[in-house]
Design brief:
It is a single chain. The chain has 180 residues and is an alpha+beta fold. The protein folds into 2 domains: 36 residues; 142 residues, no CATH class. It has 5 helices and 7 strands. A hairpin with a 4-residue loop joins strand 6 and strand 7. Helix 1 crosses helix 2. The N and C termini lie far apart (56 Å). 22% of the residues are buried.
Length: 180
Amino acid sequence: MSKRKWCIALFVGVGLLILVGLVMAWDLVVIAYYVNMERARVVPTKRIRPAFRFVVGGDLPEKTEGLGAIFWGGRDPAIFVKFRTNPEGIAYVLETFGGSGVESEPFDADDLRVLRASGWEMFGGLSRVQERLGVQLFDQDSIGPGRRLLKGDGRRNSELQYLIFIDEQKRTVYIKAWLT
């Protein structure tokens, strides 16, 4: 390869690396904006995965449809994510988030009926936040039987905590994760 072609290839390669770096840095700038905002915000679809990674330290399943999220910034950042997925995506969620120290319990139709009648919200306070933001990611009255995963006790212990509900009929996953 001639010296000129080698220089052009080097210039193009360095340019691509700089471009990739700028795109990644922009995601970090946007996440920093969300973290510094104390109030809840709806996350644009293209920013959901980086925001989720920021809070959880892991990723969502590869296949996600109807992806939506709300992010809470401040001292204890949190994210609520909703998506539909395939059986492999559900298996990924169960494997990734269902390890040791995680409570896992099935929710059948009777459990859901009691939950609705009692007025207790699965994702406490989320309905008020959704109303204020003008979005509807979770409706407790429309979920079907599934499985709930819970990690953490709500105390401050500097670790990731989460509540996940998997609607097995609709293949819809709801995840609220927060750092304390």
